[in-house]
Design goal:
The complex is a heterotetramer of chains A (1001), B (181), C (101) and D (415). Chain A has 1001 residues and is of the alpha+beta class. Helix content of chain A is 22%, strand content 28%. Chain A has 5 domains: 113 residues, Roll (Ubiquitin-like (UB roll)), CATH 3.10.20.440; 195 residues, FAD/NAD(P)-binding domain (3-Layer(bba) Sandwich), CATH 3.50.50; 195 residues, Arc Repressor Mutant, subunit A; 190 residues, Gyrase A, domain 2 (2-Layer Sandwich); 84 residues, Elongation Factor Tu (Ef-tu), domain 3 (Beta Barrel). In chain A, the strands form 14 sheets. In chain A, strands 9, 10, 13, 14, 15, 16 and 30 form a 7-stranded mixed beta sheet that branches. In chain A, strands 43-44-45-42-36-46 form a 6-stranded mixed beta sheet. In chain A, strand 48 and strand 49 form a beta hairpin. In chain A, helix 4 crosses helix 6, helix 7 packs parallel to helix 8 and helix 22 crosses helix 23. The radius of gyration of chain A is 38 Å and the shape is elongated. The termini of chain A are far apart. In chain B, 51% of the residues are buried. The longest helix of chain B is centred in the last third of the chain and has 13 residues. Chain C is an alpha+beta fold. Chain C has one domain: Folate-binding superfamily (Folate-binding fold, 2-Layer Sandwich). Chain D is an alpha/beta fold. Chain D has 2 domains: 181 residues, FAD/NAD(P)-binding domain, CATH 3.50.50.60; 152 residues, D-Amino Acid Oxidase, subunit A, domain 2 (D-Amino Acid Oxidase, Chain A, domain 2, 2-Layer Sandwich), CATH 3.30.9. Chain D has 11 helices and 18 strands. In chain D, strand 1, helix 2 and strand 2 form a beta-alpha-beta unit. The chains are: A alpha+beta (1001), B alpha+beta (181), C alpha+beta (101), D alpha/beta (415). Chains in contact: A-B, A-C, A-D, B-C, C-D. Strand 33 of chain A pairs antiparallel with strand 16 of chain D, so a sheet runs across the interface. The structure holds flavin-adenine dinucleotide, nicotinamide-adenine-dinucleotide, flavin mononucleotide (FMN) and zinc ion. Flavin mononucleotide sits at the interface of chains D and A.
Chain lengths: 1001, 181, 101, 415
């Protein structure tokens, strides 16, 4: 039984009991407990089922390396699958569920896979399920999917909140253990901006569990003084519960902070993503213990030796009355000693090494613990929990020498420095045979933007496992850093540590060495993904020799723990099997995050209405109040139409369009881009930007212009107004404003930097109101103060004036073919003017119209729309806009591109109008015309497509424009458009449907 | 360390009465510098800085662009005066009072709130009094500077003011503010 | 996540404040150019695995384009310089030489 | 070679799976081959496979600088679809998709082609019209697609939020026979079949130089000595520029990082592939249960196989907005690949300025789906020396002529 001991537990508060439930059962724990410690304290040893074979699984480790103890926490909007029990703090009332079983944890039908496991080795599915062809999708795949997958996903929306936080520091210390705290303490007086992050709720790392004394006092005292001292330095920030997740280029680091759970559960800030820019990183992440590979090593009760010690000391939880120990190094003796000291029994330590001499083994022996050299475990006894073990000779094949009864087995296969963050940006590792570990290769470090090493591993992260070695090693790094930053160090006092000689860890991987094939299939390497020794054997046998291949073939290290405890064992097995040194086998690639981070944390506050900025015009609220049906247009929102009570969208659009044709309508055109271009060379510059001639434009006049990219493709269009000799105002499409402004600046800054031109994107400065319709002038004249007659303001001209007491610019331009004015006014006054116009227009039944009516109106006139008639492959010539392409200019952007053979091909598709023969329904959007002949690919050749199609309320019939092969040459021809197999016939006609002779505007 | 600031979270409000004038020109030119100074009584700021005197500030936007802040009512006068003074110079001077929204932020922990949304280095030695930082807040372009630790200004495009306001609200209401700067 | 020093405003700009613009020092080919020259100008790129001279714009900042010498393998930066130039400045070339020896 | 089947699996289980053969052999390089393919990614291996299968050319070596399938083939989000707009693209991607349908049987290797359906969401009117346009083209091209309503979207994909406040879902382009496949298995299956035909797959063999002899044959310097061949195929994706430089020409290619990530595995809740191009994110759930997620490419040239966090952030943000329940799933791992982007974002299968050197590249962010079709077309080009109908439009010449194959025009991206 795993139980809570009467005393002990440095991080729990026995005065604060907590209740929680596990699979519906009410249990008790203490404040400070983790989910894992609380479950163990309640003798809940079976905590889940493995991924593939649904084997029973128990808590294995005490930190983020835990492969088995994953749970689903909470419910509803707070339901969270796959939570690591050993890193999750217990909260009052927490509902915990175990995962991956049906119908229950104890009785899981999925475990039939276990029985059939011999049939299901690594990669079995590549070799079967191929026939019949349909069976994979309909039979096998669903079955495989259902049995995989761990926890169930939440079904409710997340009710929690997340945010980000940027910081810039000189030094980021990762890990608040001994080495990290020591480094921070030594560097604090330099005044460098230091941020130290620790993933657990407490500081000190392994200090308290593993050492009684440090720095001349008890280790607890050293920790307290250190933390106190650090808190006096304003330049140092310590943060716990914050796991550093990833290191990116140029010193960018992300860390995931779990915020303490407030007592009320009413939607709070749950996590914070730190986005850190740091000059240097001190990596003090410690080391992670490895298990050993032996038969039955996955049975609940087999646990990491250090983990057992942590639960004992931090939480006062016993692993059971009798704990046997299997180790290849001295560190695990600490567990045996600690258990014995507290009064629990350690029947046996099996040490795979031949000779055992270190300080700790000696101490253990003195305490009366039985220590057996050169021994291993032949087989673990028990099904859902350990009941005992068979001891064997390590060098043999596993014959049982003796049966030992025990409830727990503490395993240690040595330690692996926690080097993940060193490697995210390409820091290399090397295998150190004498220390049996991959350590950072200081010759091949990750570098910063200057090519200098920017991560500095210290302590166990750099492979120093003995406490007494750490201060000197930290000092070296600290001195180097201080020098790099050119900060003097005051006299460093190195804390003293007891000198414990530990003997070398032995490179034991398989226990026993001569394990038989049948047993290799009962020996686990990766617990969560059910990768066994035999799977690795099989991968190698089949030629998956690269470690990357064996990883992908067996899924070793691909589980939620990312192989923190299993990868090195796997690599060693490959190395043994192939007879290739560890360094040659190498590791797989370390990738962020170090520990998984919620996707919600990554999204941060950018959700719902903050998902993306919505740009609003000053008239937005008026539109809203008038029932606008919105449409996103780039980052803006614009009314698509305004719905009257009970009206459909189509009806609204038709009504609005007709209103403009019959009396007058008004449009919020504020979103159109407005770019000022001024300077001695402004005219010359615009002559390069636009295909037509802007230099000849007279002040006071406007001209419609086209812009092409260097390929010659039409990119944007708009009206240019010449304000004075050296100043132009260029209107762009709504979506084009920023891009075109950037485009202009690009040419001015990078190509023609000697030209004297300034630009400014002043889009938001003005509200632009379009007034269009036969009675537009009458409405405006009611507001008085300026002359707007044909003589005073002819078509394609503009002038300043006053309307309704406001200073305005009025442009006489038209995108609807009607008499039309665009009024530009300071944004702050725009809404007021809008309302005044609306008032004034009432007697003419003025109505606001939205973007869709605008489109209908322009289509009736055969005007093109960027994004409809153009798509990045269309040149102005295709659209019959040759008149807007200057033949006189030597050069403009796009001119050269348009010379190329494909762009001068006489067969290009060109713009025409399309008249549906039966005239009932508009042509569907985007349909293609197909010809009688076939193309090279064996299907009917396409010879045209619809680019815009609408119902014209004015003409009371459908209208459409399209691009058709040699279109204008084929007037009157009838094309067949394929609409979902149905052929719709349409005649090629002139695309100016309404008022082709321009009598209205 | 991780406690809520007792002084209360900062607040953000629109300041309506600020006029703004865009000034583009060759800022290295002596004539320009002197002309500007004569008209505004404020020296052309060094790069990345903002200079202020008696209600008029000049911010450095780019090597050839300044933004002049002054009371809204004085904008016309200033533009006329500049046009007069710099007659013949290559400049672009424009009333942009409505182009951007100006926010005033007051309270404590302003750096922290900004740091939730901006990648700018907000350390006190980098973001100093008189620093004018153009950067990003959430997903949009802004600039900010401060008069005092407890009184900052932020400008953004007028059409994006609503977004800024909401994001600021969310950044000050939800959960604690890490005391960092 | 790159961080580049804008040579105009002296700000160490975050990648998210910048927009990248591809290889620098391209020569624009106008109406007189041959098909080959024009193709080269618009499409053919060195795309080096190693040191590249490239364009960036301080979009969420001063709005200026500048050039960067950067290693496409290690992300090292050898210098940034204004865009108004036809070739990398000597100082940057020296820095590259110094670090690549 | 032993055939894979349930029976062989049962038989092998009796002796603890100790009797399996190598999936592919690991020979020493010979001095001379008829054809050398550089790059043992999906495209290189498929090229070799169809050279053997369709054209009887089997004296072939495939040289790989790392481990086979370790390039983009081993790191992509495995979306397979063929609902492309332009005839040329539709033809090759549909050829490819149809080859995928039978690939497991053809290779006797279960590559787990899962035609679960791919939907591309329309979130603006412009995008909706773009997809209607593709749909119309696909009908004529004989590719089964459908433009569906938001309600149907929701029906096919329970966990999607079709009423996102910022970009509500207006509809989707749905290809029911699109889907996914097990990416590694595609490389392994082809490799096994190539090896079976006697071709040499030579790993850890980096090509470092290429020179041409007077008789037109090619000398290839590699990290494992020099190798000679009559015809050379460059199929190295992100490294195409580097290899072209060795042979003395330049390409309309820039190499940038494209990233992806997976969540922790959960029980099945997403049965289709969803792509959302307006907000830049796409997602599917693998057979193991992870959400496989990808988004936009970094914009700057990059050979580091890792990208910037901002792209991960943008992608995740987009998907959390559309699939609010994934907010509480966790990112397990993220990675990057070096993708080769051409001037018009369409691939190149072409002769090169150097005689007897052929190139297949430029698949950028979307070439997993095209592996079988591209291999088919490239093999034809290399065997005959002239492109067949599938490869012809994808020649290098098109950039000079301005004859682009532009797929972005109808609001589509190319995953
Ligand atoms: C994150 C990501 C997501 C993607 N998602 C999708 C998707 O959903 N759907 C889709 O269809 N496509 C997707 N793609 C694109 C797809 O992965 C690629 O287009 C495709 O895999 C390219 O295959 P390949 O065989 O051409 O290249 P690779 O698989 O990259 O193979 C090229 C090989 O050439 C080798 N090589 C390079 N240089 C040399 C040399 N000098 N000597 C010898 N060997 C060399 C490399 O090591 C590599 O193995 C994605 C790509 C990425 C990175
Ligand atoms: N003798 C042995 O075999 C052996 C083996 C391992 C450890 N040790 C002991 O370990 C200690 C070494 O000290 P140390 O400071 O190097 O390690 P440590 O274990 O004391 O501290 C490392 C700290 O880093 C934290 N951490 C790890 N990854 C993190 C991340 N991504 N983000 C945030 N925090 C993270 C851990 O929670 C831990 O607190 C000594 O006590 C030593 O005796 C001994
Ligand atoms: C479709 C797909 C699914 C993946 N699923 C997992 C997974 O479940 N667990 C995991 O650790 N990695 C997974 N990966 C990522 C790989 O581990 C690896 O990161 C990727 O292939 C790139 O290789 P590299 O990281 O070694 O460079 C997956 C990759 C792909 C392409
Ligand atoms: Zn700048």
């Amino acid at each position: 039984m795993t139980v809570r001991l009467p005393t002990g537990g440095t991080v729990i508060d026995r005065s604060k009991p907590i209740t929680f439930s596990f699979n519906g059962k009410k249990l008790r724990g203490y404040k400070g407990d983790t989910v894992a410690s609380a479950l163990l304290a309640n003798n809940q040893q079976l905590v889940g089922r493995s991924f593939k074979y649904h084997r029973p699984r128990g808590i294995f480790a005490s930190g983020p390396e835990e492969p088995n103890g994953l749970f689903t926490l909470g419910k509803g909007g707070k339901l969270e699958p796959n939570q690591v029990g050993s890193t999750t703090e217990l909260t009052d009332g927490l509902e915990i569920q175990s995962q991956n079983h049906w119908p229950s944890l104890e009785t899981d039908f999925g475990s039939v896979a276990n029985v059939a496991s011999r049939l299901l080795p690594a990669g079995f599915y590549y070799k079967t399920f191929m026939a019949p062809k349909q069976a994979w999708k309909h039979l096998f795949e669903p079955a495989i999917r259902q049995s995989a997958g761990l926890g169930k996903p939440p079904m409710d929306n997340d009710s929690d909140h997340y945010e980000h936080f940027y910081t810039h520091v000189d030094l980021l210390v990762v890990g608040g253990g001994i080495a990290g705290l020591l480094a921070a303490r030594m560097l604090a007086p330099t005044g460098l901006k230091i941020l130290l992050l620790e993933q657990t709720p407490y500081f000190g790392g392994r200090l308290i569990q593993d050492h009684d004394e440090f720095g001349g006092s008890s280790s607890g005292e050293w920790l307290t003084t250190t933390l106190e001292e650090l808190s006096t330095h304003k330049n140092v920030t310590l943060r716990n519960r914050t796991s550093v997740a990833g290191v990116y280029d140029h010193g960018f680091v992300i860390a995931d902070e779990k915020l303490p759970d407030p007592s009320d559960n009413s939607g709070y800030l749950k996590r914070r993503l730190w986005k850190i820019r740091t000059k240097r990183i001190v990596l003090a992440t410690g080391a992670i213990e490895r298990p050993l590979c032996f038969v039955g090593n996955d049975i609940p009760g087999v646990r990491l030796a250090s983990g057992i010690r942590d639960f004992l000391q931090n939480y006062g939880v016993s692993p059971g009355d009798r704990t046997a120990v299997l180790t290849n190094n001295d560190d695990a003796y600490k567990t045996a000693i600690a258990l014995t000291e507290i009064g629990l029994s350690v029947p046996l330590i099996m040490d795979t090494r031949m000779e055992i001499r270190g300080t700790l083994p000696t101490k253990a022996r003195k305490m009366g613990i039985r220590v057996e050299p050169a021994r291993g475990i032949g087989e673990v006894l028990g099904k859902k929990t350990v009941t005992g073990l068979e001891m064997c000779s390590q060098v043999g094949e596993g014959t049982s020498l003796e049966i030992i009864g025990c409830e727990a087995i503490a395993v240690s296969g040595g330690w692996s420095p926690t080097v993940h963050l060193w490697s995210h940006c390409n820091g290399k590792l090397k295998w150190d045979d004498s220390r049996t570990m991959f350590v950072p290769d200081w010759q091949k470090p990750p570098v910063d933007s200057q090519g200098k090493q920017n991560i500095f591993p210290i302590g166990s992260a750099d492979g120093y496992l003995q406490l007494h070695d750490i201060p000197v090693q930290v000092e070296t790094t600290v001195k180097f850093l201080a020098q790099e930053f050119e900060k003097p160090l005051t006299n460093l006092e190195l804390p003293e540590a007891e000198r414990i000689t530990e003997e070398k860890c032995h490179g034991t991987w398989l226990v026993p060495f001569g394990m038989k094939p049948a047993n290799r299939a009962k020996t686990w390497v990766d617990f969560q993904n059910d990768v066994k020794v035999s799977d690795i054997d099989l991968a190698l046998l089949e030629g998956f020799e690269s470690i990357e291949h064996s990883k992908r073939y067996t899924t070793l290290g691909m589980a939620t723990d990312q192989g923190k405890t299993s990868n090195v064992n796997g690599i060693a097995l490959v190395s043994h099997n192939l007879g290739v040194p560890m360094n040659k086998v190498g590791t797989t690639t370390f990738r962020p995050p170090y520990s998984p981070i919620p996707l919600g944390t990554i999204a941060g506050t950018a959700k719902q209405e903050l998902f993306k900025p919505t740009r609003k015009t000053p008239i937005d609220a008026w539109h809203e109040a008038n029932n606008a049906h919105w449409e996103p247009v780039s980052d803006w929102r614009r009314p698509y139409c305004y719905l009257l009570e009970g009206e459909t969208v189509e009806n609204a659009v038709n009504r609005e369009a007709l209103r403009v044709r019959t009396t007058v309508g008004m449009l919020d055109a504020t979103t159109l881009g407005k770019i000022l271009v001024k300077g001695r060379d402004a005219a010359k510059f615009l002559d390069m930007m636009y295909t037509n001639n802007m230099g000849t434009l007279k002040p006071g006049r406007c001209r419609y212009g086209l812009m092409c990219d260097e390929n010659g493709f039409l990119m944007d269009d708009g009206v240019v107004a010449r304000l004075d000799e050296t100043t132009f105002l260029c209107h762009t499409t709504t979506g084009g404003a920023d891009h075109i402004h950037g485009w202009m600046e690009d040419w001015l800054q990078c190509e023609w930097w000697d030209w004297r031109v300034f630009t400014a994107n002043i889009t938001d400065q003005y509200v632009q109101i379009g007034i269009a319709g036969p009675q537009a002038r009458e409405v405006l004249e009611k507001l008085g103060e300026m002359g707007l007659s044909e003589e005073e303001l002819p078509f394609m001209s503009w002038k300043k004036g006053r309307l309704a007491g406001f200073e305005v610019q009025v442009y006489r331009i038209s995108f609807s073919g009607e008499l039309s004015y665009e009024i530009s006014i300071k944004a702050s006054e725009g809404l007021e003017l809008w309302k005044r116009i609306y008032e004034a227009g009432k007697e003419f039944s003025i109505e606001p119209y939205g973007t869709e009516a605008l489109h209908v109106l322009r289509a009736e006139k055969g005007f093109i729309m960027i994004g409809d008639e153009t798509d990045g492959t269309v040149i102005p010539q295709d659209l019959g806009l040759d008149w807007a392409i200057s033949k006189k200019k030597d050069d403009f952007l796009g001119k050269r591109g348009q010379y190329r053979s494909f762009l001068t091909d006489p067969d290009r598709w060109r713009l025409v109008g399309l008249d549906v023969l039966d005239r009932e329904e508009p042509l569907p959007h985007g349909v293609y015309a197909q010809s009688e002949d076939q193309c090279d690919f064996g299907h009917p050749r396409m010879e045209g497509r619809v680019t815009s199609t609408y119902y014209s309320p004015m003409l009371k019939r459908p209208i459409a424009m399209g691009l058709v092969e040699r279109g204008p040459e084929r007037m009157g021809e009838v094309l067949k458009f394929n609409s979902g197999g149905k052929m719709i016939k349409a005649k090629i006609v002139n695309h100016m449907f309404y008022d082709p002779d321009k009598e209205v505007q | 360390m991780a406690e809520s600031p007792a002084m209360g979270t900062p607040s953000l409000k629109l300041s309506d009465n600020t006029g703004m004038v865009l000034f583009r020109g060759e800022l290295k030119s002596k004539t320009l510098q002197e002309g500007l100074f004569e008209v505004t009584k404020v020296k052309v700021p060094a790069k990345g800085r903002i200079n202020s005197l008696d209600g008029l500030s000049i911010a450095w936007m780019s090597p050839d662009e300044l933004l002049i802040f002054l009371p809204l009512g004085d904008v016309g006068k200033l533009i006329d005066a500049l046009d007069d003074k710099l007659e013949g110079e290559e400049t672009l001077i424009w009333d942009v009072s409505d182009l951007r929204s100006v926010f005033q932020i007051e309270g404590h922990f302003i750096r922290e709130v900004l740091a939730k949304n901006s990648p700018a280095d907000l350390n006190r030695d980098k973001m100093r009094r008189g620093t004018f930082r153009r950067t990003r807040f959430g997903q949009v372009a802004v600039a900010f500077w401060f008069k005092e630790e407890t009184c900052w200004f932020l400008i953004c495009r007028r059409s994006e003011a609503g977004y800024i306001q909401r994001l600021f609200e969310v950044s000050t209401q939800e959960g604690e503010i890490p005391s960092f700067y | 996540m790159l961080k580049l020093l804008c040579p105009y405003c002296g700000v160490e700009a975050d990648e998210t404040e910048l927009v990248s613009g591809g290889e620098a020092h391209l020569k624009r080919e106008g109406p007189e150019s041959s098909d080959e020259e024009f193709e080269e100008y618009l499409f053919l790129r060195d795309n080096p695995k190693g040191i590249i001279f490239e364009r960036w714009r301080h979009a969420m900042g001063c709005g200026k384009w500048f050039h960067v010498a950067r290693c496409t393998e290690t992300m090292e930066v050898f210098g940034t310089y204004p865009a108004q130039t036809y070739k990398p400045p000597t100082k940057v070339l020296q820095e590259i030489k110094a670090r690549r020896h | 070679m032993k055939k894979y089947s349930l029976l062989s699996l049962v038989r092998q289980s009796l002796n603890y799976h100790t009797g399996w053969e190598r999936a592919w052999k690991s020979p020493e390089p010979k001095e001379n081959y008829d054809v050398v393919i550089v790059g043992a990614g999906g495209h290189g291996l498929a090229t070799a496979y169809y050279l053997g299968k369709n054209h009887g050319i089997k004296n072939v070596a495939i040289l790989e600088k790392g481990w086979l399938g370790g390039g983009n083939t081993g790191r992509n989000t495995t979306i397979i679809r063929s609902n492309y707009l332009q005839d040329a693209s539709a033809a090759i991607y549909e050829k490819s998709r149809s080859l995928y349908e039978i690939l497991s049987q053809d290779l006797n290797y279960n590559i787990m082609f899962s035609p679960r359906g791919v939907m591309m969401l329309a979130q603006t009117h412009h995008e909706a019209r773009g997809y209607q346009r593709i749909n119309s083209a696909n009908i004529i091209q004989g590719i089964k697609t459908e433009y569906i309503t938001p309600e149907r979207v929701k029906e096919l994909c329970k966990i999607i939020n079709i009423d996102c406040p910022r970009y509500p879902i207006l509809g989707a382009l749905w290809q029911p026979r699109g889907g996914t496949a097990r990416h590694d298995a595609v490389a392994w299956g082809y490799a096994r079949a190539c090896s079976e035909m006697g071709m040499h797959i030579i790993q850890k063999c980096e090509v470092t130089g290429i020179s041409q002899q007077n008789n037109g044959s090619l000398d290839i310097q590699t990290s494992r000595g020099s190798i000679r061949c009559n015809k050379l195929g460059m199929v190295v994706a992100g490294h195409s520029g580097v290899l072209a430089a060795q042979a003395g020409f330049r390409l309309p290619i820039e190499s940038v990082a494209l990233q992806a990530l997976v969540s922790e595995p959960v029980k099945p809740c997403l049965d289709v592939v969803v792509m959302a191009n307006t907000v830049h994110g796409y997602i599917s759930q693998s057979d193991k249960g992870e959400m496989v997620i990808g988004g936009g490419a970094d914009q700057y040239n990059n050979y580091s196989q890792r990208g910037s966090f901002i792209h991960i952030e943008n992608t995740v943000r987009a998907l959390v907005e559309m699939f609010p329940i994934i907010s509480r799933l966790k990112m397990l791992r993220q990675w990057g690949g070096i993708v080769d982007m051409t001037g018009d974002r369409s691939p190149i299968i072409s002769k090169t300025p150097v005689q007897n050197i052929f190139i297949n590249c430029g698949w950028g962010t979307g070439g997993f789906k095209s592996i079988p079709g591209s291999g088919w077309a490239m093999a034809e080009l290399m065997a005959k020396g002239e492109p067949g109908v599938l490869a012809e439009p994808f020649s290098l010449e098109r950039f000079k002529e301005g004859r682009f194959i532009d797929e972005s025009v109808a609001a589509g991206v190319a995953h």
